TrEMBL record, chain A:
<feature type="domain" description="STAS">
    <location>
        <begin position="2"/>
        <end position="113"/>
    </location>
</feature>
<dbReference type="InterPro" id="IPR036513">
    <property type="entry name" value="STAS_dom_sf"/>
</dbReference>
<dbReference type="Pfam" id="PF01740">
    <property type="entry name" value="STAS"/>
</dbReference>
<dbReference type="InterPro" id="IPR002645">
    <property type="entry name" value="STAS_dom"/>
</dbReference>
<protein>
    <submittedName>
        <fullName>STAS domain-containing protein</fullName>
    </submittedName>
</protein>
<dbReference type="InterPro" id="IPR051932">
    <property type="entry name" value="Bact_StressResp_Reg"/>
</dbReference>
TrEMBL record, chain B:
<protein>
    <submittedName>
        <fullName>Anti-sigma regulatory factor</fullName>
    </submittedName>
</protein>
<dbReference type="InterPro" id="IPR003594">
    <property type="entry name" value="HATPase_dom"/>
</dbReference>
<dbReference type="InterPro" id="IPR036890">
    <property type="entry name" value="HATPase_C_sf"/>
</dbReference>
<feature type="domain" description="Histidine kinase/HSP90-like ATPase">
    <location>
        <begin position="38"/>
        <end position="131"/>
    </location>
</feature>
<dbReference type="Pfam" id="PF02518">
    <property type="entry name" value="HATPase_c"/>
</dbReference>
Length: 131, 135
């Protein structure tokens, strides 16, 4: 079965969604992320959805579920890269992402994770270059 | 882009087919010249309504149709199922109301994303929803 790759980057896990999400794929991602957080002790998860041309209530609910589960495992999830058209459509649909942190892009998402986790920039930079 | 038929019909019996239908909606919307935002709205409304069909009626049929009225072109999408029907349409159209495990955004949310929204439903016979977005 098709899987969305999860990259480890220092204390973070990085997911870039590049394909149109169908149900099984999203549910597999939730499973895989949960296992990876447990295995690696990751403190943060960054999900880049810049390639997604649509977020419906199902995908929204799954993103919220991932954030909630990782939070219980002491990891923070940030969703980044939402396209403007997707954001506008979600608001009109009446869908927000309760409990999900968002940032404009990967860079800002990383900054947000670091500040949330109290990691100083130098240290985070150090981890980046080692990873 | 290759020529696409003015009217197409798709069965929706599983979640994968929802993905196929919304991608086809994007193809039609792009072909007609809809901008990015309108394409996104059409795809999202389609996804919500097709999922409703799957969740509450066990599936159904989607028709994608390029239409024209008063010199305007539009994309019309019809969702037809032979499910249990909706007993109280007014209630179903209320924001936040859900009879299942959804968030209750499906119908009223999809309605906000399009220009025209028609719904008819008969208990034990099925539901038909027609949405149109005009250029």
């Amino acid at each position: 079965m098709q899987r969305i790759p999860i990259l480890k980057m220092g204390p973070f896990l990085l997911v870039t969604i590049q394909v149109d999400l169908h149900d099984r794929l999203v549910m597999a991602l939730q499973d895989d992320l949960t296992n990876m957080v447990s295995k690696t002790g990751a403190r943060g998860v960054l999900i880049d959805i810049s390639s997604l041309d649509m977020v419906d209530s199902f995908i929204g609910r799954m993103l919220g579920g991932i954030a909630a589960v990782t939070r219980l495992m002491d990891a923070q999830t940030v969703v980044v890269g939402m396209q403007p058209a997707v954001a506008i459509t979600m608001v009109e649909l009446g869908l927000d992402l309760p409990g999900v942190l968002t940032a404009l892009n990967v860079e800002r998402g990383m900054e947000l994770l670091r500040s949330r986790l109290g990691l100083v920039r130098e240290m985070a930079h150090d981890i980046d270059t080692k990873a | 882009m290759t020529l696409i038929p003015k009217r197409e019909r798709f069965p929706v019996t599983c979640a994968q087919e929802i993905v196929a239908v919304r991608q086809r909606v994007r193809d039609h919307a792009t072909f007609l010249g809809f901008n990015r935002l309108d394409q996104t709205k059409l795809m999202t409304a389609t996804s919500e309504l097709a999922r409703n069909m799957l969740d509450y009626a066990g599936g159904g049929t989607v028709f994608i149709e390029q239409v024209e009225a008063q010199g305007r072109r539009g994309l019309q999408i019809t969702f037809e199922d032979q499910g249990p029907g909706i007993a109280d349409l007014d209630l179903a159209m209320q924001d936040g109301y859900t009879s299942g495990n959804g968030l209750g955004h499906g119908l009223p949310g999809a309605k906000r994303l399009v220009n025209d929204f028609f719904i008819s439903s008969r208990v034990d016979e099925g539901t038909q929803i027609v949405i149109v977005r005009w250029m």
